[in-house]
Amino acid sequence: MISVILANYNGSKHLAEAMRSVLGQDFDDYEFIVVDDGSTDDSRQIITTLAEQNPQRIKAIFSDENRGQGAAFNTGMAHAKGDIITFIDSDDIWFPEKLAGVQQHMQQQPQAVMFQHNLAIMRDAKITSERFRDILTVGDYFSYTRRRKVIPQFIPTTGLAFRRPVLEQVLPVPEQFRTCADGFLTRTAFCYGEIFSVNNCWGAYRIHDANNTFDNPAFSNRKYLSHLLIPALNEFYAAHQIDFCFHDRLAQLKTSFEELSLPPDALLLMLRSASNDIMQDVLEILFMTYPGLSIDLLVPASAQHIFSDPRINCLTIKEGFFNSDTIGEQVLEKIQTRKYHAGIVPYSVNNPYSYHNIHILLPSLNNCPFVAIDYDGYNHPIESV
Does the predicted TM-score (pTM) go above 0.85? Predict the structure, then answer.
C-alpha cells in the first residue's frame, strides 16, 4: 500500500484541486492523509467536505496550532500505514498515472530507498512544457556527494516517494523546518541506499504568488542552506554516526572573526568586494561576534539599500572595478584619516589573483591591517595572499 501525505497551511486557494488530483488516481491501493497545520482560511471546510465524500480514502487531521511543515510531515507519518510514503504540496497536482507509476518502478528497483519523478511547471493554472529539472540523478548519490561535497539537488515534495523503513530511519523532521522540509528528508534518506528517477512528468509544480523556493525573490536560498539545512543535516549525520558533513561556512566565519580579537567597539573598513549574499553573511556573523562594532563600507550607490543596518556607514563609490578613480578623492581623504582596527575584504571566489586590483590599492587607503575572508569563511592577512 502507498500512503499519501498532504500538509496544508492556509492553502485553500489550490487545496481542492490538489486533493482531487490525488483522488483521481488510476490506482486503488492507497490511503490519503491530510494534515491541516492550524489554517485560518477556508482549508478546514474544504478538507472536511472532501473527507466526508471519501470516508474510506481520506484521513483528515486538524491541528489547532501552526507548527510548520516539518511537524505536519511527522504527524502524517505517525498515522501512515503504507509500505511506500509519498507527499504532495497543497498547491500542486498529480496526474492520474502518478501512483501506479511509483508503485511499478519501486517494485522493479528493490535497491532504491527513494524515488523521484519530474514535474511540469504550471503557470497561471496552465501546465507548460517546462520541466522542474533538466537532469534527475540515479544510483548512489550519497557516495558522489561525499566526494564532491556539493549540496545534492532533488525534485521537490510533490515528485518524491520513499520506502517506509528509510523514513523511519530519518524521522522526525526537525520542527524548525517550517517550510521546505523535503530538503531534510531527501538529503538524509539518500544516505541509506540508491535513488531511482524517471524523467516522466507525473505531476505539476505550480508557480504562484509566494512560492517558497521558485520565482520568489523573498525566499533566501542562502539563509535556508546556511542557517537551517546544512546545520540540521550535519547534526543528523553526527547523531547517526554517518562519516560525512557539509562545510559549515557560517561557523567558519564566526571562528575567523573571533581569531581577529577585535575590541567590542571596533571600527572597520570594508569593501563591497563580494556578491551581496556573501556580504550579508559576512556582516551578519561580524555583528553577531562583535555587536558593538561599526563599519565604513565602500559600496556603489546601486547596492546601498541592501546595507541598511545603522552600524554600517555606506561610503559611495562608482560602479566597476576597485581603483583610485572608483573611490574618488573625497571618500579617499576621509578613509585615509580614520583610525580603523582592521580592513575586511570578502571574496566571492577562492582565487586571490582575482582581487589583485584591490590588493594593490589597499596601501593607499589606510595603514590598518587588511584581512581577506575567502568564500569558505577562512581569513587570510592580505600580505600573505
Answer: no
